[in-house]
Amino acid sequence: MDLKKCKILLDAIDYRNLSKVAKDYGYTPSGIWHMIDTIENELGFPLFIRNSGGVVPTDNCLRLAPYLRDLLKCNERLAQRMAEIRGIKSGSITIGSYPSVSIQWLPHVIKAFRADYPGVTIQIREGIRQELQSWLDEMSVEMCFYTWRPKMKCHWIPLRDDPIMAVLPPDHPLAGAASYPLSRCAGEKFIMPALGRDEDVTAVLEEAGISPSIAFSTIENFAAISMIECGLGMSIMNELITKGRLNKAAILPLDPPRHISFGIALPSLEKASPAALEFVSYAKRMIPDM
After folding, report:
1. pTM, whole model, 2 decimals?
2. 244: pLDDT confidence band, cut at 50, 70 and 90?
3. What GO MF annotations does this protein's record show (predicted)?
4. Which residue, of 37, 60, 86, is where some domain finishes?
C-alpha cells in the first residue's frame, strides 16, 4: 500500500464521509470506493461498512489505523529532516485546538510562523476536550492546544492561565456587581457548554461541591452566551471564550477566583517533527504575552 492510499484511508476513518475525502483529493466518491476495494483485496479483509450516514470503519480497520499513522509520521519526519539538510523548511503540521484558542491566539502564531516558513502547511482541527484527547491518543494530530488536567499521559508545555468568569443575563440581580459568588450557581438555571461534557467547567463545579440545575446544554459556547443574553439562564466559562464578541451579557470574575491552565500537549517531544517543534517554539514565545 503506497503512502497516498494510507492517507486517504486514514481520512476516511477520521471523517467517515467518502464524498468529503473524494473532494479533498480530486476523486469521485466511486473512485475512492474503488481504491478502498483494491486495498481490501490486498489486505484480505473488509475495512468499512456503508450506512445511511456514510461509512463506519470495521474493528480490523481501526486496529490497522495506528500503524498507518506511524508510517505517515515517519515519512513526514524523514522528509522534513531531508529538507533541513538541504536548508529548506517544509512539511505539514496538524493541530488540534479548542475553538477559543484557534480564534484568539493561533491566527497570530500562524501568521508569524508562516512569514518565516511559507513552505509548511498547517491544518487545524477544532473540538471539545474529549475529541482532542482522542485525536492526540491516536496521533491524527501532532499537538493539541487545550487545558491541563491531572494524570495526562503526554508531554505538556504550559502557556498561560485564563480566569473562569460568570456569564449572566443583562437584567440579572448581580449583573452590576464586582464579582459573582461561585456558590450561587447551585440555585441558578445553568446553561452547560459542550453538551454537558465541558471538563473545565465541571471540574470547577465539582471542586466547589456544586451540582447546578442544568436548564439547557449546547455544543457551542457562543450559542450559550446568546441564550444567556435572552435571559434563559447563566453559565461559567473561561474568559478567552468571551473575547472578540460584542456581549450583552454581564461577565464577572468568580468569588473565589478560579482559573484554567492552557498549554500544548504532544504525544512525544522526541518524536515530534522539526516543523512541529518550531511551531511550538513560536507559540511558547507569543501566547503568554497575548
Report:
1. 0.73
2. confident
3. DNA binding; DNA-binding transcription factor activity
4. 86
Our CA dihedral for 231, 236, 237, 243, rounded to 10 degrees, sits at 50
Task: Identify the CA nearest to 80 among candidates 271, 281, 264.
Answer: 271
Give the number of C-alpha atoms closer than 13 A to the C-alpha of residue 22, restricted to the C-beta side.
Answer: 14
Q: Which residues contact 210 (CB under 8 A, 6 or more apart)?
A: 182, 183, 185, 186
Average pLDDT over residues 190-215: 90
Neighbours of 151 (CB within 10 A): 4
Helix and strand numbers (H, E) in the chain are 11, 12
The count of structural domains within the chain is 2
Q: In angstroms, rounded to a whole number, what is the distance separating the alpha carbons of residues 8 and 15?
A: 10
Instruction: Give the containing element (helix H, strand E) for 144.
Output: strand 143-147
> Does some domain include residue 14?
yes
Question: Do residues 87 and 57 make contact, with C-beta atoms less than 8 angstroms apart?
Answer: no
Block residue for cell numbers 487545558: 147
Give the range of the structural domain holding residue 37, as residue numbers without chain letter.
1-86
Please state the length of the chain. 290
pLDDT at 86 > cutoff 70: no
H/E element, 122: strand 120-126
Cis peptide before 107 (omega within 30 of 0): no
The tens digit of pLDDT for each residue in 32-67 reads: 999 999 999 999 999 999 888 789 999 999 999 999
CB-based contacts of 208: which residues, under 8 Å, 6+ apart? 182, 183, 185
CA–CA distance, 235 with 93 (Å, rounded to integer): 35
Q: Is residue 91 part of a domain?
A: no
Q: Look up residue 166 and give its amino acid.
A: A
CA distance 152 to 154: 6
